[in-house]
Structure formats: structure tokens, C-alpha cells
Amino acid sequence: MIMGLAIFFTILSIIVSYRVVIGPTITDRLIGADTIGIFMSLVMLMIALEYDLALLVDIVLAYAVLLFIDMLIYAKYFEHGELYK
Amino acid sequence: MNKLMKKIMISVVLTGVAFALYQNFSLMPEYQGLNEGLSNYIIKSGLNDTGSLNLITAVLYDYRAFDSLGESTVIFGAVSGIVLILSRKMLPVSSKGLSFIVKRALGIMTPFIALFGFYVITHGHLTPGGGFQGGVILAAISIIFSIVYGSAFDYRRYSPQTKTLFETGGALTFLGLGLAGILMEGAFLQNLGFLTAETGTLISAGSIPYINIGVGFKVGAGLAIIFYSMIQKTFEEDF
Amino acid sequence: MAVLEIILVIFLVFSALMAVYFDEELISIIFLSIFSLVLTALYLLHKAADVALAEAVIGAGLNTAIFMSAISQIRHGDSD
Amino acid sequence: MTLRLIISYFLMITGSAFAIVTVLGLLRFPDVYTRIHAGAVVLTISAVLVTMGTAIYVWDLFLSAKIVLIGIFFLFSNPMATHAIARASYKRQIALPEEYEIDAYSDYLGRDA
């Protein structure tokens, strides 16, 4: 069940990467990358549960934090055209 | 006179380095072959030697702590070069930032991100992570400040002088623990035995948590300096 | 377990190819962050927790921040 | 098959259904801003449901608390990130129509300056 969900989310993120490849504007690609990030962090959570190791869950939290900061950096760049403002 | 003082100081420092190197080389064990010796030895008796549950941290900050010192010196060199090339005086700071929603929500979330960074740093000998990874999470706080609230906020809260202070303080912590290893245990960066407590608790594993804290502050402040120097605006008048 | 590994490796190769394929730097950066993400999941699948945390922190946080600041330095002025 | 496992499987499967809806919306919606809507709302509820299901599945105090923390972080972070991206792409005039019938956001932005 858990591994099945992990495979399911991985296949879903491969399907979403179609939108990242083909998306007409840059916003499409960013939203696709955000979706892939959240799906793959769910995959990491499933792997941590499958191995029953509590310390692997920390990595998912660290990845979620840094994915959020990534998205803020992209948004800042597209809003102002530079990162300094 | 000035040149003479410089030469004397350089020779004193070089003598100290030679002494540390001689101490280390005299303690080296015999080579036992690649398959037999090292990895099996570390897996078998790493916990007894260092008291650290995470064997990778044990290798990084106890067995191979001298390499980690070299790596943090590399980061120090990179920071120095980037600041030397890219930093400019009399900067116009800006405080536009992102929208109000993001500012208000990150005001709530940022302390927890800092807490998570400190958790990763201080639990380096118990869970995966350690100084470098937690330091990058701490540097993300400075990135958040200059991205979300504008670079004026980052400049006011953590000015480059404060960041430099943190970085040199981390490096000096590392070096000071190494010198304490010479004084008390007989070798550079030897694990301090009298700090060891029960295995699995937070303050255990000798000097490894303190080295982790030093490396964490050093890496976090160094990467924050790199990011702050790299996003600066270039003036058209400069060219 | 093996099925998940095969799918992840295929995804890894795909994102690496796409990062090379596009001409525009921004799309390449997006695909590089996806690449490091999949690599983190692969490291986790092989129980390499420490390497996975380092890869997540460096690949997701640091690389994107440094690359985006470099791009904002390069393209400043002609982006508007 | 206790009641706890049934509840956790129900939450996970519901979250997976929302994930399928997310992917359908991302692939099939015609416009950039409708795709942002799919990626913000449905994806958030999907991630939160799956994390809650896994937190009930493991049923250990500290581990469940940590997984619930991840869910709460998704609940906060994902709408905010999509909000920032949508605002940026509105300000940069990406894929906007020439004339509006109703455009309340430009009034708000004009007041906000």
C-alpha cells in the first residue's frame, strides 16, 4: 500500500513534468515544478514510512522548507526582475 | 623592524603547524589494506571511540576533522574572494519586498525555520545532518529576509559586520577546540574525553556537538554573505 | 521497491536531459532543482540519510539561490 | 485491519484522488491562472490529507507530531508560494487579455502602490 502510493505519486509527477516541458509561459513551468516538489516530498515521506525510520522524516521537512524558499526566490525574480529590491 | 616582526610571527605560526602535523603523523596506525581496515573498524568501534550515534558525523568531525577544517577554510576563501570582488560601498538599500500576505505569514514562520536549523545543527551526532546542512538552513533565513522584506531589512537586522563576526567566531571555535585537543588529549582535534556523557543524550560525544555548532555558524554566515554580495545592484556609473 | 527505483532513475535521466535541452537558463534551473529532488528520493531509497539531507539542502536551497542571483546580475537592465 | 488503519487508508486514498484532480487540472485547463488555481487549492488539500493519513498510519507520538508539522507547513507554504507566483505573473502581464470586463486586482494594486 505504502510503496504503491509512492509509485503512484512518482508516476503523477512524471505526468506533471509534461506541463513543465511544454508549458507556454514561465508561470506554467513554475507551478509544475512546485507540484512536482510536493509530490516528490510525499514520495520521500512514503519511503521513510516504508523503512520505518523516524530520522528520515527530518529530510522531508528540510526539503519542504527549502522548496518554499525556492518558490519565493522565483516569484521575487519575476515580480521585480532582480533580487535586490 | 616591521619586516622582522612579520618574519618572526610567520616562523612561529609555521613551527606550530609543524608541531601539530608531527603529532598527527606520529599517531598514524599501520596500513592494513582497504577492505580489512578502515570501514569495518569504523562500523565496529566508531560508537565506542566517539560516542556519536551517527557514524558519518563521527567520521567527519572526529576521525577526519582535519579534512573538515580544510573544507571550511575553502568556504572562507570563497567568501573572501566573492566579497572582495563583488561588494561595493555606499549601497542604495531597498525595502520593497513581496506582498503583504507573504510578509505577515513569514513573520510567523521564520522563527520555526530558525528553530529547525538549530535542531539540525545540535542533533548532528544523533540524527542525520550536522553543521553544514543546518548552516545552510540558517543561511536560508537571511535569504528570506532579503527576498521577502527587501535587502534593507536584512542589512538592518544582520549587517555584514555581524555576519563576519559569526563566521570568524565559528572558525575560531573549531580551531580552539582543536588546540584544546592538543593541550588535553595530545593531538590536534582529538575528541575531548572529559565531555563525554551517556550515549544518545544531547550533550554527549565529546567535542563533536561544539564543533557542529561552530561549523554551523560559519557555514550559515558565510553563505549569507555570499548571497548578500551576489544580489547587489550593479551601478551603471561603475563601468 | 525495484519498480520505484526504475521509475525514479528514468525520471532522473529525463530531467537531466531536459536541463541540457532548453536554451533558456531559467528553465534549466527549474529542471536542475527537479533533478536534485529526484536524486534526494533515490538516496533515501538506498537509506543514505546524511547524503540525502546534504543533497536536498544544497540542490534545492543553495543552487537555486546562487543561480538566480547570478542570473539577476547578468540580466539586470534588459529584463524590463 | 483495525479502525485506525481504515481511517488512515481512507485519508490517503482521498488525498490521492485529489492529486489526480490536480494533475488533470494542470494538464487540461486552458489558461495560466486557472492552472494556478488547480496547483494551489487542490494540491494543498491533497498533500494535507496524505500527511494526515500517514500520521495516523504510524501512530507514534513524536513521529506523528513531526508528520503533522510537515502537513501544517504544506498548508501554509503552498498557497503562499502560488500566491506570490501568481501576483508576479500578473504584474509582469504574462498571458493577460487585452481588455478586461472586471479587474479588481489592478485597483487593489494601485491603492497598494
UniProtKB/TrEMBL annotation, chain A:
It is a multi-pass membrane protein. Keywords: Cell membrane, Membrane, Transmembrane, Transmembrane helix, Transport. The keyword Transmembrane applies. Its main location: membrane. The chain crosses the membrane at residues 29-48, 55-75. InterPro entries: MrpF/PhaF-like (IPR007208). Pfam families: MrpF_PhaF. The keyword Metal-binding does not apply. It is found in: Cell membrane. GO terms for molecular function: sodium:proton antiporter activity. Belongs to the CPA3 antiporters (TC 2.A.63) subunit F family. This is Multicomponent Na+:H+ antiporter subunit F. It comes from Halanaerobium saccharolyticum.
Automatic annotation (TrEMBL), chain B:
This is Multicomponent Na+:H+ antiporter subunit B. InterPro entries: CPA3_antiporter_subunitB (IPR050622), MnhB (IPR007182), MrpA_C/MbhE (IPR046806). Pfam families: MbhE, MnhB. The keyword Cell inner membrane does not apply. NCBIfam families: PRK08386.1. Residues 9-93 form the MrpA C-terminal/MbhE domain. It comes from Halanaerobium saccharolyticum. Its main location: membrane.
Automatic annotation (TrEMBL), chain C:
Residues 10-75 form the MrpA C-terminal/MbhD domain. This is Putative MnhB-related membrane protein. GO terms for cellular component: plasma membrane. Its main location: membrane. Signal peptide: none annotated. The chain crosses the membrane at residues 6-22, 29-46, 52-71. It is found in: Cell membrane. Pfam families: MbhD. It is a multi-pass membrane protein. Keywords: Cell membrane, Membrane, Transmembrane, Transmembrane helix.
From TrEMBL, chain D:
This is Multicomponent Na+:H+ antiporter subunit G. GO terms for molecular function: sodium:proton antiporter activity. It is a multi-pass membrane protein. Its main location: membrane. Belongs to the CPA3 antiporters (TC 2.A.63) subunit G family. The keyword RNA-binding does not apply. Keywords: Membrane, Transmembrane, Transmembrane helix. The chain crosses the membrane at residues 6-27, 39-59, 65-86. It comes from the Bacteria. It is found in: Membrane. InterPro entries: PhaG_MnhG_YufB (IPR005133). It holds the Pfam family PhaG_MnhG_YufB.
